[in-house]
Design a protein that fits this description.
The complex is a heterodimer. Chain A is built from eleven helices and 16 strands. By secondary structure, chain A is α+β, with helices and mostly antiparallel strands. Chain A folds into three domains: about 170 residues, 2-Layer Sandwich (Alpha-Beta Plaits), CATH 3.30.70.270; about 140 residues, 2-Layer Sandwich (Dna Ligase, domain 1); about 80 residues, no CATH class. In chain A, the strands form four sheets. Chain A has a six-stranded antiparallel β-barrel. Chain A has a four-stranded antiparallel β-sheet with strand order 2-3-1-4, sandwiched between helices. Chain A has a four-stranded antiparallel β-sheet with strand order 5-8-6-7. In chain A, a hairpin with a 2-residue loop joins strand 11 and strand 12. In chain A, helix 1 crosses helix 9 and helix 7 runs antiparallel to helix 8. The two termini of chain A are about 55 Å apart. Chain B is α/β, with parallel strands linked by helices. Chain B has one domain: P-loop containing nucleotide triphosphate hydrolases (Rossmann fold), CATH 3.40.50. Chain B has six helices and seven strands. Chain B has a seven-stranded mixed β-sheet, with helices on both faces. In chain B, strand 4, helix 5 and strand 5 form a beta-alpha-beta unit. Strand 9 of chain A pairs antiparallel with strand 3 of chain B.
């Protein structure tokens, strides 16, 4: 078992991305994906995501969380050249500073530059709306030189300065920083609010084939799914747009081709969704190829529904199999239609044709209890519509004139239609069912109703 | 089996039926509930195999397959037909839980079988010819081979139910069974037409055995 941080009070996690080139949309998508670990997330764009894991400590070990965050980071960063660091600490500025300056694991040994992180940990000067203007930077290089001339070498020396003279020498903000360093002053938590809309566009620099587009899409969908999982959602409706270069011969309406796909089964995994999109887009593009090279791919999740991602169980593959089912059923329904892919559900009805219903596939845990109706033996094959037949002497005669010799039979079993459904427009019927042995030993299921005989099924 | 006796010529089907009814003794051997007297494929099918169950209409092919499924409740089943004629209520009667069976009705059954095998979510895929389309070969040689390769990759087994027998030399099939029903006792008889492999169950499955 990994170390638990419950007893160490290191409940603040800084997920440090360094000088990553993530744009705002993707950075926020990464932050949204972090909601899977804790509901309290804050950001410092574009450097760090903070997680307050108080109350969630029991869910992860320290090593497990580091590993998960690093894997998550790799899904969002295009290049692995940026160092991803995960630092645990008792407060936000300390976690940020220790992550930024990994030379030390002790706050007091941090370099003087780290003081700026204690000044405004959630907003950098590069932020769109910084707390202070760049020219008001308290810990500029000149200022650090002054501190150096005063004999201060690190944060520990700054912490040792007498507080009473600090305000007069360095101003109010220096007092605040000192208080933060000593843990006397907390940092107000600026909670991150995820965007409702998920839209990502990827520009294609060079000419690519359709198969390469799916490769690019995989990364995009992967990030979208990570984000949705963080919010305990599943994609229900998605849209894909493929834009080609504008050539003079291409009509304006052919420049952007858009697919809006309502997923038959809400998808929470990349492989499931990608399979469906690949089928749909490949088929359409085969029919109607692109007239120019692709320029841009965009992916948008239009509608989501709540769906908590399953907690993978190392010893039980049930959840994994359920994902496979979801993905497969989604693809089949997309191609064959909802009516043609189903699970049968017995219902409390007496007439054989109404004794079951098609049910859209859903999680097995949500299956309704099945109806237990004691029944006489039922045939394995049934005709969708009973077929009128005749009995002449010892022969069963079909409408096409074919005759089979009757060897014997069993019955009747009387089945009445439910009289209380007459109001719903159903005809009241009384049927006497027989099992008839014919020809080479085959058993047919026929019924007598209103002096007419109908073939309804086969014992196959 | 009781032979029918007609003292006078009946006028209508209903009358005929009543004559037949009066001529028939209840509890005939034919309709007595019979337990399977053999442990049909209790060891299971070889993984990645393609099996054919063929025989005339009403011979008991579906019954044999359901018996196999009921003996292996851990397997998820995909049941594919062009025009679905299978009666799901009978599954429960044959002790096959409907919750583990996915029904697919399509004329594009090759595509559906390959998709299902690719997903690796099912242990058994049953491809059944419909009542209305049982006199033509369900799959050609190339399709059978494609399915067999996909089944091998997915470690799943595919059972093909058809009325007409594919030629005995069709090599993608690992097992070919021919099913008939005895016209006097109603028992189902199995004949192993082909078996490719080195499993023991072939010896445990006599040529004529009954349900």
């Amino acid at each position: 078992m990994g170390k638990s941080f419950a007893d160490r009070k290191r409940n603040l996690v800084c997920f440090f991305l360094g000088n990553s080139t993530l744009d705002r949309v993707r950075f926020e998508a990464l932050a949204t994906a972090c909601f899977r670990f804790t509901p309290k997330v804050a950001i410092r764009f574009p450097e760090a995501v903070f997680l307050d894991i108080r109350g969630c400590e029991g869910l992860f070990s320290e090593e497990g969380l580091v590993l998960r965050l690093k894997i998550l980071g790799k899904r969002f960063l295009d290049s692995s050249t940026f160092p991803i660091r995960v630092q645990f600490a008792e407060d936000v500025p300390t976690a940020l500073a220790l992550a930024r300056y990994p030379v030390s694991s002790v706050k007091r040994e941090l370099p003087l530059e780290a003081l700026s992180d204690f000044d405004c940990p959630f907003k950098g000067f590069e932020d769109e709306k910084p707390l202070f203007k760049a020219e008001d930077r308290l810990f500029s290089k000149d200022f650090q030189q002054v501190l150096g001339k005063l004999g201060l070498r690190n944060v520990g020396d700054f912490m040792d300065l007498p507080v009473k003279s600090l305000a007069a020498r360095l101003g109010k903000r220096a007092v605040e920083i000192n208080a933060r360093l000593h843990g006397h002053l907390g940092t107000p938590w600026i909670a991150f609010q995820p965007q409702e809309r998920y839209l990502e566009k990827v520009a294609l620099d060079e000419e690519v084939q359709l198969e390469s587009v799916f490769f690019i899409l995989k990364g995009v969908i992967d990030r979208a799914m990570a984000r949705l999982r963080g919010l305990a959602q599943r994609a229900n409706r998605v849209a894909i747009e493929l834009q080609v270069r504008r050539f003079s011969v291409i009509r304006a309406e052919d420049v952007v081709r858009r697919w809006e796909i309502e997923l038959p089964v809400p998808q929470g995994s990349t492989s499931g969704l990608l399979g469906i999109l690949r089928e749909r887009i490949s088929f359409d593009v085969d029919q109607n190829p692109f007239l120019a090279p692709l320029e841009q791919v965009s992916f948008e999740v239009l509608e989501t529904i709540p769906g908590r991602g399953p907690q993978l169980d190392f010893f039980n593959k049930k959840e994994e199999e359920e994902e496979k089912w979801n993905s497969l059923v989604g693809r089949l329904i997309d191609h064959l239609g909802k009516e043609n892919v189903f699970i049968a559900q017995p219902v409390h009805r007496y007439l054989p044709e109404y004794s079951w219903k098609k049910q859209r596939w859903q999680s097995q845990s949500k299956m309704e209890d099945r109806a237990d109706i004691p029944l006489a033996s039922r045939p394995l094959r049934i005709l969708k519509k009973p077929e009128a037949v005749q009995i002449e002497n010892r022969f069963l005669v079909f409408p096409d004139g074919k005759k089979v010799r009757i060897l014997g039979f069993d019955g009747p079993e009387r089945i009445d239609s439910e009289w209380w459904r007459n109001a719903e427009g159903e005809e009241n019927q009384t049927r006497d069912y027989y099992r008839i042995v014919v020809g080479e030993g085959q058993i047919y299921w026929v019924f007598l109703s209103n002096s007419q005989i109908f073939l309804h099924g086969y014992f196959d | 089996m009781v032979r029918l006796a007609f003292n006078k010529t009946p006028q209508t089907s209903a009358e005929t039926l009543s004559v037949i009814q009066s001529s028939f003794k209840k509890g005939s051997e034919f309709f007595q509930k019979k337990k399977l007297s053999f442990s049909f494929l209790k060891e299971g099918l070889p993984l990645g195999s393609l099996m054919e169950v063929c025989g005339p209409a009403g011979a008991g092919k579906t019954e044999v397959v359901l018996k196999f499924l009921s003996e292996h409740p851990e397997l998820r089943v995909a049941w594919i037909e062009e025009n679905l004629s299978i009666y799901p209520t009978a599954f429960e009667q044959n002790k096959v839980s409907l919750q583990r069976v996915l029904f697919v009705e399509t004329s594009r059954y090759l595509w559906a079988v390959l998709q299902i095998l690719k997903s690796q979510a099912f242990g058994i895929v049953v491809l059944s010819a419909s009542i209305s389309n049982r006199h033509s070969d369900l799959l050609d040689e190339i399709e059978r081979r494609r399915i067999q390769i996909a089944a091998e990759k997915a470690s799943a087994s595919v059972i093909v139910i058809d009325e007409s027998t594919t030629s005995q030399g069709s090599w993608p099939f690992t097992v070919q069974l021919y099913v008939t029903r005895c016209r006097t006792t109603g028992r189902v008889h199995l004949q192993v037409l082909r078996y490719r492999g080195a499993r023991q169950w072939e010896k445990a499955l006599p040529i004529a055995n009954g349900i």
